[in-house]
Design goal:
Layout: H1 5-53, H2 55-64, H3 66-79
Helix pairs in contact: 2-3
Length: 84
Amino acid sequence: MNLTNEQKLEIVKNDIREVIRITKKSKELEAEYEQLEAEANFFKSKIKAIMDSVKDDFLNFIHADKEYHDLVKEMAIETGMFND
């Protein structure tokens, strides 16, 4: 299929528009990711501070409840607070 120069130009212009749209969306998602990461880090440090302040009692409690223990362990692994 032979395209005219005008058709080729229109295809290129549409591709450029798509690149601009994707780039804008990427920047939006990056900003959202950074915000979510900052929120996660805030809660991570908050939880760590609580865990440090009541460490012995807290550890005894989470070991007594297996489901809670597994949940805390998963959170700790996912956030990098603990490596399995």
